[in-house]
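Succinate-semialdehyde dehydrogenase/glutarate-semialdehyde dehydrogenase
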Amino acid sequence: MFQNVNPATGQKLDEIAEMDDAAVESALARADAMWRQWRISTLEDRTALLSHIGDAFEGNKHRLAEIATREMGKTLKSAVAEVEKCVAAFRHYAEHGPEFLESFEVQVAKGRAIGRWLPIGPVLAVMPWNFPYWQVVRFLAPAIMAGNVGLLKHASITQGVGAAIEDMVLKGGAPEGLFQNLPVKSGKVADIIADRRVAAVTLTGSEGAGQKVAEAAGRALKKVVLELGGSDPFIVMPSADIDEAAKQAVTARIQNTGQSCICGKRMIVHADIYDAFAEKFVAGMKAVKADDPMHDETDMGPLSSFEQRDTVLDQIERAKQAGATLLCGGAKLDKPGAYMSAGVLTDVPPESDIAKEEIFGPVAMLFKVPDIDAAIALANDIPYGLGSSVWTKDAAEQERFERDIAAGMTAVNQMLASTPEAPFGGVKLSGHGRELGPWGMHEFMNLKSVLLND
């Protein structure tokens, strides 16, 4: 049984029953049977279905957003925006999916070879709570377009979202079994991965979860894509627009109450403009309003749970014990719910454990560096490599950052964000493989070589 709590109020939500072994078996049988049909469906059928599912999401976006807000605390306005982003993804793959699946031809020593993209079967997605719609849809839309079918193991605290996604897929006209939400707990994931009917697995989540899923996939010799944590650098150089950089740094750090893998977490600022940036950034963080996520004027809601808030507060204390200074915020708020104020840490020893961790909450670490070499070295001196944001108007500096920051993504003079068109993923302990664009679709397809001698 799943028993969740609204993190904004502390009140219990409806209980959701866990799927038993017999129900899991039935779901896997349906997925296998449906794949055998869907794999030979026409591109026209696939694109039409994606468009209709997008319409279902759009027509129900406010109801869907309210479910996410109740379950994990993000502001209602940001939840609506997340659903709208899902609509864009469905429509992107409906429009461009056929071209992503086009065969190609190469000349070989004798004759020619044709490369064909073919589906591989049911794909299991193990997904987190922080962007509970978007992180599912960025797997699901390309999976449907590819001719695969989807199975979802959603986070324990967002079971209502998982059920709602399945409902929207069915409302869009999908045949039964094309996408199924499996309300199971983590202990059953390895057995599902091992089942011969599951072709591959994708996970977005923590490093620990990634290790367990990768181990299970490895034992079964199945393809796995992992998008894990990150502690993204947000680097500001003297030529940057300081006002805009400071403004975007605040947005990056507090979006989704700081619970985003790719929001800037370590603000690395050149010494020449450090004081000016720090003043603006701290002022912006102090002005952040943490309140009821249902209200339009709220900047950020509670953290996803009381446990998550306590984890962040503990990280702040450990940073202070290591020698860091808390410039503002970073405290529990005196109201019901898992609220805390936005905080800024400075003087964090770069060699300390906390400097290399991901703080999954609205707390930034602020570092001063003397030059670009030091900025890049500090940016890379962590085990993660997901995203990065760099602020400079100097073309040579931009080239250095693009080439030398060890990350899967770098945004220049803007806050990093995912988009359906561009590849998404990381290096080092941030995982491997890519989502979105044609690359995310191709991760779970068989690129078959057809050799012809004509």
